Amino acid sequence: MAEALRYRPLYRQVRETLLRRIAEGHLAPGETVPNEHALALELGVSQGTVRKALDSLAAENLVERRQGKGTTVVEVTPARSLFKFFRIARPGGERLTPESQKASTRRRKATKLERASLELTANELVVEIARVRRVDDTPAIRETIVVPVKRFPDLDRTPIPNTIYALYQRRYGINIVSADEELRAVAAGREDAKALGIAPGAPLLEITRKAFDIDGKPIELRLSRCDTRHLVYAVTLR
Amino acid sequence: MAEALRYRPLYRQVRETLLRRIAEGHLAPGETVPNEHALALELGVSQGTVRKALDSLAAENLVERRQGKGTTVVEVTPARSLFKFFRIARPGGERLTPESQKASTRRRKATKLERASLELTANELVVEIARVRRVDDTPAIRETIVVPVKRFPDLDRTPIPNTIYALYQRRYGINIVSADEELRAVAAGREDAKALGIAPGAPLLEITRKAFDIDGKPIELRLSRCDTRHLVYAVTLR
DNA sequence: TAGTGGTCTAGACCACGAC
DNA sequence: TCGTGGTCTAGACCACTAC
User: Fold this and answer.
1) How far: A36 CA to C19 C1' (Å)?
2) In sequence order, what are the residues at sequence separation of 6 or more whose Cβ sits closer than 8 angstroms to the Cβ of residue A133?
3) Residues A52-90: pLDDT tens digits?
4) pTM, rounded to two decimals
């Protein structure tokens, strides 16, 4: 929904120009952005205005600026993706790297709830990915991911890597930049118990995620159930 | 611990001057800060430098800037405090206002773990506050708060309000600005079951919080156990 | 209309990184 | 030594709020 804005500062327009170039691939992840002076000349604004636009992109972690080096488009590396969206850690805060296994994918019609959440039309198809993730060689998280086929045409015929957001960016040009999560405690069902090697009825941490791209459009739904006997979900509130 | 910095930009120094004035009460919460021009004149720097300092404080929600009005020191109002640190919501995202009841306070020696977490010396005393919080007139959260007596001399003889961080600021001049939380799913114990009116063994969401002040010093430990049958812990990752 | 913060410019100089 | 982003200045003009 494009808003009819009465007034749009110059640096916002510059920002949007750069955003468009990133989204359309003219500035690829990992690439160095032209320097401030060059951009200012090209766009016909002052260096300070370009700076303000770049700073605002840096504040959202879309570019990275380094004195003496330059400005580069942020790449969704496995490590980066993990640190941002994978909040499971050891008690005390030490970050973890989970391993995935046995990812199974299938294509099906979206449920009513999925259509509402992902803004899909009737009868639209989704890809569902189910996998178990291990930590310290022990099954710890049971995960189900749902994305629209429209956006990810052949995802169900693609091997699923450990860090899937890097795949979204590399193969489909979609940058996941934010996610809303809701957490609950639930009792393990029979399937959970089998997959995670625990007793049915044991308490599990259930995480419901809705992930968004640069434009704020919902892209992915994800449900995770975690055995938190040896892990925690860690978050910092500011 | 003052760090020996090789180089400290002017606007950082201005920022610290203003921070000191807030911390020492020369600029009280709710008060309007002198305008940019006046501050620039007083501190002998340019208006742009003052602006940068104020913007950095605004980015951390310590002051609030409004075009045409001015810059005011942020006050920890109950509503504000809630939205920032109270992450419990109804499924779907609607924010809630919990009510507290039956807060009981006592003074005791800190445990070893508390001494380590709060950076206390041996034999130091803490105040422990226990309460049950209700949502929709139903007990939903069982909460235990631990703070050092040193910082909160007579807290155990003070009525505990619903939003305790406003009390920290108003009565003790301590601003809680960030918190680390760790979440787990646990089975309800007998005490939990009694307090929350649920069956022993039912899954509960356990939240462990460590809250920090402006200087990054640990101030408070908090343990909450939530019945998440009708509530969720909601968080946005960016 | 007056006063505030917000934008924008142009140019100087500084700190950092790479060569 | 050079090129990059980071800081700082001085001043103009704009948009929002209150009177």
Assistant:
1) 22
2) A98, A99, A100, A101, A139, A140, A141, A142, A143
3) 999 999 988 889 999 989 999 987 766 666 677 899 999
4) 0.83
